[in-house]
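BUG: 3D viewer hangs when loading the predicted structure for this chain

Environment: internal workstation, default settings.
Expected: structure renders.
Actual: progress bar stalls at 90%.

Input used:
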Amino acid sequence: MIDTHVHFWNYNKVKDAWITDDMKVLQRDFLPEHLRTELKENNVDGVIAVQADQSENETTFLFELAKKNPEIKGIVAWVDLQNENVETRLLYYSQSHIIKGFRHIVQGEPDGFLKGEKFLNGIKLLKNFNFTYDILIYEKQLNEAIEFVNKFPEQKFVIDHCAKPAIKNKSINNWIKGMQEISQNKNVYCKLSGLTTEADWINWKEKDFNPYFDCVFEAFGTDRLVFGSDWPVVLVSGSYTKWKNIVEKYMHNFSAEEKRKVFTENASEFYNLNA
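Structure tokens produced before the viewer hung:
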């Protein structure tokens, strides 16, 4: 069983200024040893460590963690995709089999970021090295993301956190339309992760997530969905076990093969974990 989305950090209030005081539970170090009990209790064999800071120092940090912690099966790192020397950096990172792909925190960028020529030039190079790309956006950026992925039919993409729908506001129609459209690209996968964080942190109910699950399971099918915990961010609105149980409960009547795809095989295929 593979968890496709966890973060690690040594907390620094300047570097990690995004962790505001209403997220105090996250204002401390989170390292592999802090996650190990959760993984064991939930029968999770390995994780994908995803960047949380936009620097190559972050990439080095995750790489060093992976060398000492075998549960880290792959890294979604950060590199400046807009830099003119990005091809040289990608060549360098391609020498490490643990680095599977890259991510940029597009949710914090202004409108039009995914149309930028320099950024697109960087994305265009990824497939030459068999690197994946994680799309981190809010629901309001879906239309821009659709235009973006249409430009790269051979690039492997995965949408983090189901594009962060506005669950707390019970706003769903525009999100459904966007997810249905972007899923038409067969090179685009979707992570079942991060939804409790988009709901009312204190008062969410399991049933709140069913319409969102209904949409992505219909749109992507069990061949292009992967499980992710979004640990430790999930702790602001629940726990690792609660979120995994929600996904498992929704999939209760799915076949063993379908469950194996969502929790293991799709992640292995997408992130090339058997290389």
